[in-house]
Amino acid sequence: MPSSSVGGRLVLAAPPEADALRTRLVWLTVFRTVAVSLSLIAVAVRLFVQPLEEPSRTDMLSFAVIGLVYVFTLVYGLMLRRGQVDRVAAAVQVMGDLIIASALVFLTGVGDSPFTFLYLLAVIVASIVLDGRGALVTAGAGALAYASLLVAVKFSWLVPPISSTTPTRGRFAFLMASNVLALFLIAVLAGYLARQLSATGGQLSARVADLKRLDVLQRQILACMPSGLITCNAAGVVTFVNRAASSILSLEPRLPASTHVEALLPGALGADVRLRRRELTVRTASGLRTLGLTVTELEGSELGTLIVFQDLTELRRIEEDLKRADRLAALGTLAAQLAHEIRNPLAAMRGSAQLLVQDPGTDPGSAKLVEILLRESDRLSKLVEDFLRFARPPPPTKLELELEVLVAETVDMLRADPIARQVRVETALAPLRVPVDADQLRQVLINILRNAFQAAGEGGGVRVTLEPSGEQALLSIWDSAGGIPASDLSRIFEPFFSTRDGGTGLGLSTAYSIVRAHGGNIRVSSSPREGTEFLIQLPLQG
Q: How much is the pTM?
């Protein structure tokens, strides 16, 4: 017998057969109560329509029988309430029905009684709550009760309240044989039907249990699958969204009714059906997401469409980082070669210019031109040094230090810069010890912070935050401008690419190379509504 633990106690659960029997007995009790109540209403209506000075003897007997049925029903209800659900309880109900049937048959004249069909109902009830053998036993008991009443009335041992003719020998035999035969035939037929019904019900219960298990398995699969899944009907209204889809698209736990799939995945249904696999960029509450999308029409146009997708945003970022690293490596090699080729003739040109300045015979006009030559050669030399630093940055000398102190010092130093005087600066720096090259990382901060101050401008804001995230330190530099076009975000770390007039385009390229040399990464996002954010990721362990 199944069991369960409740409150630390072992509680035996009722087997499925007992549950089924209890259900049948409850429905039988309800049916009996309703039938008797309707009979009571019918008698009361008859008395009301044809009022008499006092109820007849027949009416009084009718009320007595109805009261007896109510008493039996109350006893059955108490037995069920106390948990007495077994074959004994079922047999008690069947015997009670036989007693009620016998009382009604006797009160209405036995041989002429219109209530002999109640014996048949008792047999049918026995076949439902008991088995076929119980139906046969009930048929035998009903036949014995009816035969006993016939014999008692024939030999005047009992006198029915309602006068009836004493059956002749032939009628006596006919009533006896027909009723006994009807009872046993109904018992056999009802028993067979009850067995078939029980077998069919068992098979149906097994199928229902299988369907429930399949439904639970399906829900578990849909809930645990890493890919997003959305289904919609033929009108495009969303009918199902799994947990992964809600997470990827940053959806609420419960979508509003009649949500259209185009509101979640714009353009998902408008593509050529031959393109079974494609990419789609959607805007979510957590930013832009790149999705690998598969759209499949379910069999039967009325069933709708199945959409399965994966979040490819991080994969595309990694691919872009690898492509950028390859481009920077190739440009670095070329830049190193060009720098070395330019450096030597540049040094010779500057040396010659210095000799001209030191020559006392040089006229003032020529001296001025030589000074311009020296100044421009110095500027060109600095550009070559930047080239070399970008092309072949020195390996970082990592020392574990308080990163929040380094960041705070750099921010305080740049606050004195004229470009930062009218800019609101906020910092939220968590204490973190990170192995970094202090000089190189300070150069990264200066390059990015100066760009942020210039972009924010007068009245703008810059926010610098530092916090741990797993095995990484996240350093965020945000400005309120958000002025980098989306088309430029993928090229912002390329050398010689700059969105600012007069910029060399080497500052962010150098910063990117330094962070990568530390084993970290830089991400950038920008929009006029959300501002621009440079997110520097550095490993906490060297």
A: 0.47
Instruction: Specify the pLDDT at position 390.
Output: 59
Mean pLDDT for all residues in the chain: 79
CA distance 106 to 100: 10
Q: Could you please report the per-residue DSSP string of 306-349?
A: EEEEEE-HHHHHHHHHHHHHHHHHHHHHHHHHHHHHHHHHHHHH
* Helix, strand, coil share (%) of the chain residues, nearest 5: 60, 15, 25
377 Ramachandran zone, left/alpha/beta (phi>0; psi -120 to 50): alpha
Which tokens sit at 18?
């007992």
pLDDT category at 1 given cuts 50, 70, 90 is very low
Q: Checking DSSP bridges between strand 424-429 and strand 461-469, what pairing results, if any?
A: parallel
DSSP state for residue 488 in the 8-state scheme: G
Q: Between 127 and 161, name the one with better pLDDT.
A: 127
Report pLDDT digits (tens) over 251-272: 887 888 888 888 888 888 875 5
Q: What confidence tens digit (pLDDT) does each residue in 110-121 have?
A: 877 777 888 888
Segment (H or E) for 146: helix 132-154
- CA of residue 342 relative to chain centroid, distance: 63
**Phi and psi (nearest 5°) for 251?**
-95, 160
Euclidean distance between CA atoms 538 and 362, whole angstroms:
56
Buried/exposed code over 385-397 (b: 16+ C-beta within 10 A; e: otherwise): ebbbbbbebeebe
Whose tokens are 């609420």? That residue is 252
Query: Which burial class, exposed, middle or buried, applies to 258 when counting CB atoms under 10 A from its CB (0-12, 13-18, 19+)?
Result: exposed
Least confidently predicted of 138-152, 342-356, 393-407, 467-481: 342-356
**b/e burial code for range 297-306 (CB count within 10 A of at least 16 → b):** eeeeeeebbe
| N-to-C CA span, the chain | 62
Residue-by-residue DSSP string for 100-127: HHHHHHHHTTGGG-TTTHHHHHHHHHHH
Which of 58-67, 114-123, 205-214 is predicted with the least confidence, judged by mean pLDDT?
Answer: 58-67
Q: What's the CA gap between 103 and 14, in Å, rounded?
A: 36
- Show Cβ contacts of residue 222 under 8 Å, excluding neighbours closer than 6 positions: 229, 240, 242, 243
